[in-house]
């Protein structure tokens, strides 16, 4: 075959090859060498974290909601509430359960029954349950976003998706959704209360706290926060909600008096199953009464010492004081009350965020060991060490709550003593 010769030089074939090589170079090789300045640049960590964590968070939420929660569990908190609300709408006695059975029981007050009654308007059980699960799942995400903002971080920061991923890996979130209970919405109420209290919106903070107390009286100790700062508006509005709803509900809830005569006495009993509180553990293991009282009063003193030591920061470091005090009170209720269930620990999520502050109990490794205890989904049951593994699994939240109470209180006392020592030293130097 004859090749046509280009008069300028080279053959036509060479020109074709050169064109191909040039085109390939454009496709496979960057046009200019990467400069040293570009090599030194790094992808912003927040952008990288958001790109990595949000897909993981989304898949965890979908799995927990549409697989685990929709599948359900033997433990079913929702049906107890739903059918009680249906009885309310049908004019049937709400408090008609047999309390010596192990099944979950309806324990809400007449006022809480009235407040939650719209949920019973949905006549299809599966639809109502799915809506309730979704509401709690979204409430958890919203609460974490609110807490992120409370600590001064943008929702575009890495902290927000990281907190969602971490939360959805805990026992508290997983079992809240699987058991279909209201703790996700209560976490949102807690986050709202803390946010409003910090911004000094006293009436609104009290209304939110009042709703939380109406549904779960374990929130009542949080009244200490406005009391310590003489925020009487918050206290008044917090009391007004339970009083108003119970007053309105008493004439319309069928046989409302049964709540006082049948349910309230049951609430005072300590059960020996699915109960991680100190009294529950004492009953389960047959602890001598004197020993139970010793541990009870010891930890009560630890909590009081922590509350007193933290008080000095209510004006100088209000966020640290508010979150640590609330967490100390709530963990104290979980640990010392007649009933403490592991998924209550979701309400301690704000405490974990204090790790971002200059000073925090969460800077202590023991605090994270405690968090593992009351948040882990791990099952330590062992084929080799049967009793040890079973007891270890059963005691994890109890030990976790006890340890976090100690860490918060000791940290607060150490801070206070260190500051007083420093102040005394400065005075001596000045003299």
Order of helices and strands: HHHHHHHHHHHHHHHHHHH
Characterize the overall form: globular
In DSSP terms (H or I, runs of 4 or more residues), the helix count works out at 19
- What's the number of structural domains? 3
Mean pLDDT: 90
Percentage of residues assigned to helices = 55-70%
**C-alpha-based Rg, rounded:** 29 Å
Distance between the first and last residues' Cα: 108 Å
**Beta fraction:** under 5%
- Counting copies of identical and different chains, the oligomeric state is single chain
Topology (SSEs and partners):
Blueprint: H1 12-28, H2 36-40, H3 45-71, H4 77-90, H5 110-116, H6 125-150, H7 159-168, H8 171-179, H9 183-198, H10 202-215, H11 224-228, H12 232-249, H13 258-267, H14 278-285, H15 289-310, H16 318-336, H17 349-353, H18 365-375, H19 386-430
EC number: 2.4.2.47
InterPro entries: GT87 (IPR018584)
Protein name: Alpha-(1->3)-arabinofuranosyltransferase
Please give a structural write-up.
By secondary structure, the chain is mainly alpha-helical. The protein has 3 domains: 1-41, no CATH class; 53-253, no CATH class; 265-431, no CATH class. It is 67% helix and 0% strand. The protein has 19 helices and no strands. The chain has helices at residues 12-28, 36-40, 45-71, 77-90, 110-116, 125-150, 159-168, 171-179, 183-198, 202-215, 224-228, 232-249, 258-267, 278-285, 289-310, 318-336, 349-353, 365-375, 386-430. Helix 3 (45-71) packs parallel to helix 8. The longest helix has 45 residues, at 386-430. It is globular, with a radius of gyration of 29 Å. The protein starts with 11 loop residues before the first helix and ends with a helix. Residues 1-5 have low confidence and may be disordered.
């Amino acid at each position: 075959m004859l090749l046509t010769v280009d008069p300028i030089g080279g053959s036509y074939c060479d020109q074709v090859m050169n064109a191909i090589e040039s085109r390939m170079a454009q496709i496979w090789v960057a046009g200019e060498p990467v400069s040293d300045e570009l090599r030194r640049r790094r992808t912003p960590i927040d952008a990288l974290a958001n790109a990595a964590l949000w897909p993981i968070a989304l898949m965890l939420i979908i799995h927990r909601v549409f697989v685990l929660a929709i599948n359900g569990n033997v433990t079913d908190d929702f049906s107890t509430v739903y059918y009680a609300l249906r009885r309310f709408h049908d004019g049937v006695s709400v408090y008609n359960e047999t309390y010596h059975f192990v099944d979950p029981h309806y324990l809400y007050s007449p006022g809480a029954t009235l407040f939650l009654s719209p949920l019973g308007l949905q006549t299809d059980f599966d639809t109502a349950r799915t809506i309730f699960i979704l509401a709690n799942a979204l409430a958890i995400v919203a609460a974490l976003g609110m807490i992120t903002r409370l600590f001064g971080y943008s929702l575009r920061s890495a902290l927000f998706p990281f907190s969602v991923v971490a939360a959805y890996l805990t026992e508290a979130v997983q079992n809240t959704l699987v058991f279909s209970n209201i703790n996700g919405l209560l976490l949102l109420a807690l986050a709202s209360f803390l946010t409003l209290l910090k911004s000094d919106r006293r009436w609104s903070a009290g209304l939110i706290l009042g709703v939380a107390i109406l549904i779960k009286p374990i929130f009542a100790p949080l009244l200490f926060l406005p009391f310590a700062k003489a925020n009487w508006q918050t206290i008044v509005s917090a009391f007004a909600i339970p009083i108003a709803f119970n007053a309105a509900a008493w004439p319309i809830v069928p046989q409302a008096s049964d709540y006082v005569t049948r349910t309230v006495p049951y609430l005072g009993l300590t059960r020996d199953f699915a109960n991680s509180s100190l009294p529950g553990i004492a009953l389960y293991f047959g602890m001598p009464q004197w020993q139970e009282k010793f541990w009870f009063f010891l930890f009560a003193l630890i909590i009081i010492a922590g509350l007193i030591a933290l008080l000095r920061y209510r004006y100088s470091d209000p966020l640290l004081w508010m979150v640590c005090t609330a967490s100390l009170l709530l963990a104290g209720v979980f640990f010392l009350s007649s009933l403490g269930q592991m998924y209550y620990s979701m309400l301690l999520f704000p405490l974990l965020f204090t790790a971002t502050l200059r000073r925090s109990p969460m800077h202590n490794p023991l605090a994270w060991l405690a968090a593992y205890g009351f948040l882990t989904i791990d099952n330590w049951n062992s084929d080799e060490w049967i009793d040890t593994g079973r007891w270890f699994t059963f005691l994890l939240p109890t030990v976790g709550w006890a340890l976090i109470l100690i860490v918060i209180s000791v940290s607060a006392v150490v801070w206070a003593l260190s500051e007083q020592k420093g102040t005394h030293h400065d005075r001596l130097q000045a003299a």
